Amino acid sequence: MIQLPVDFSENMCNLLGKDGYQALAESLQSEPPVSIRVNPRKWSGEGPVASVGDVPWAEGAAYLSGRPAFTFDPLLHAGCYYVQEASSMFLQRVLRHYVPCACRMLDLCAAPGGKSTLARTVLPEGSLLVSNEIVRPRAQVLAENMIKWGHPGVVVTQNAPADFASFPHFFDVILADVPCSGEGMFRKDADSVAEWSMANVDICWQRQRSIVADVWECLKPGGIFIYSTCTYNAWEDEENVRWMVKQLGAEPLSVPVDDAWGIRGDATPNEEVLPVYRFLPSHVRGEGFFLAVMRKPVGDAAESERAFSPFVPDNVEKDRKKSRPAKGKGKEAVGKSVKGMPLSYEMCRSWLAVPESYDWCVSGDTVSAIPLQWSGVVERLKRELTVLHVGVSVASLKGRDWVPHHSLAMSVGLQLSAFHHVEVGYETAISYLRHEAVGLDASVPRGYVLLTYRGIPLGFVKNIGNRANNLYPAEWRIRSGYMPEEIPVVL
Questions:
Q1: CATH number for position 439
Q2: pLDDT, tens digit, 9 for 90 and up, residues 434-450
Q3: Which of 101, 304, 460, 482 is most buried, most CB within 10 Å of its CB?
Q4: Residues 354 and 425 in one domain
Q5: 236-285 pLDDT tens trace
């Protein structure tokens, strides 16, 4: 049983009233729901096997009857679905409502990647998503999850919010799911209860304002700013939104919701009611979550020219005109040698289904493909920021051999016919994901072979005849030696 901190109980009683707090406290003693979201670019079959209902505010998302051993489902590692808390999927409804055309979006505090994979799924085609995380280990997890999701229109960065200061009026949409006191995680994470204190709440709301202030100038006039937390108190939620309205001139925006969903609004006693969205586990089937949507004001005529228009996708066309391969990039560079080793440009191109839609470049030992319309923008991001991943990493030089990259296997742009592929069973799939040796039939040709599980690309091996070298990233491997008694079938 969760022992709620006294100060927290008093705060919530004052904010929600006695009955509201009692309902919240009781809900925090129950088991949290389990929900997943399907990747429609990879999985077009039936939905979750153990579904007990759809998440009402998110397409392609469902609740499960229990928590299977997700770690041991190869389809999770192949990027076919993401295990995400249902309340935070409300972001999908926000993006669908306010972003109907191609744009540049920044997910500022993106790890481990739930909201970024969701955003990349619903953003209009031709959009660019920059997913950022300041803490390096978390940023590496973010990069892993974005690579598995497989969309090429993504840049993963590891930077502090202030590092984006050199990109004024650059993004059409910014999501700041800011670090918070974590009250909404109480029933999922016992440590969050033990770590909670009023002193930490005070630190959090001040840090959140600093984060927002650091990136506000990066948002275009007329752009959309999405602020969210996984906490309940008003200091980190409504009061911070009021600060943005007063100090930054932000215009609060409403999102259409169904009353039956149980989403609550402004909980503070102020006369001016804000259009904000509170998810309380006493009222919704999900964890604690808070979200507000704001528009940056358009000032003078010059700002109006640069403003993000939700109806005219002119920003992408302007970038397309600017996006010319940089010196030493593109077809000429790929045709040259790296470390004295010639690389066939046509061979490399053949590994992606629509090669002409990418700008091809060589960086160190890696050949990458970047969506052509964003090539110039990506070059600037790489000059100014710490970039961990961009587009599709296609091949890496190993000794005297060019090896297809795992990012290529995960990409939705992969040309399946470019490689011999072998369908493997469950035990072989798990062995592969553990980075163990994989045995192939003698009829399989030598060379690079793509393994599939239930028809979905899992990764590459190099078949050398008597064995197949496992090319799955060692740092991503399943470390547990446990094998479930039953195969976890989620999809």
A1: 3.10.450.720
A2: 999 999 999 999 999 99
A3: 460
A4: no
A5: 999 999 999 999 999 999 999 999 999 999 999 988 999 999 999 999 99
- Is residue 13 assigned to a domain? no
Do 366 and 281 share a domain, yes or no? Answer: no
Which of 406, 436, 461 is the C-terminal boundary of a domain? 406
Query: Is residue 233 within 8 Å of residue 108, measured between CB atoms?
Result: no
**Distance in angstroms (rounded) separating the CA atoms of residues 465 and 287:** 51
Residue 478: CB atoms within 10 A of its CB come to 18
Distance CA 196, CA 4 (A): 10
Distance CA 220, CA 173 (A): 8
Does residue 53 fall inside a structural domain?
A: no
Does residue 395 lie within any of the structural domains?
Answer: yes
Asked if residue 389 and residue 432 are part of one domain, the reply reads no
- Owner of token pair 């506000």: 216
What's the rounded Cα separation, in Å, for the pair 105 and 175? 8
Give me the number of domains the chain comprises: 3
Beta bridge partners, 81, equal: 38
Of 348, 372, 406, which residue constitutes the final position of a domain? 406
**Of the ranges 59-63, 227-231, 297-301, 382-386, which one carries the lowest mean pLDDT score?**
297-301
* CB hemisphere CA count around 12 (13 angstroms): 22
3-class SS shares of the chain: helix, strand, coil, % to 5? 35, 25, 40
Cβ-Cβ contacts under 8 Å for 58 (sequence gap 6 or more): 37, 86, 89, 90, 92, 93, 118
Q: How many CA atoms lie within 13 A of 177 on its CB side?
A: 22
pTM for the full model?
A: 0.93
425-444 b/e (C-beta count within 10 Å ≥ 16 → b): ebebbbbbbebeebebeeeb
Same domain, 95 and 195: yes
**What share of the chain in percent tops pLDDT 70?**
90
Residue 449 three-state SS? strand
Q: What is the pLDDT of residues 311-362, one digit of tens each?
A: 433 444 444 444 444 334 444 445 445 444 445 556 788 999 999 999 998 8
pLDDT for the residue 321: 43
CA distance 121 to 376: 23
Range of the domain at 458: 419-478
In this predicted model, what pLDDT tens digit does every residue of 107-130 receive, in sequence order?
Answer: 999 999 999 999 999 999 999 999
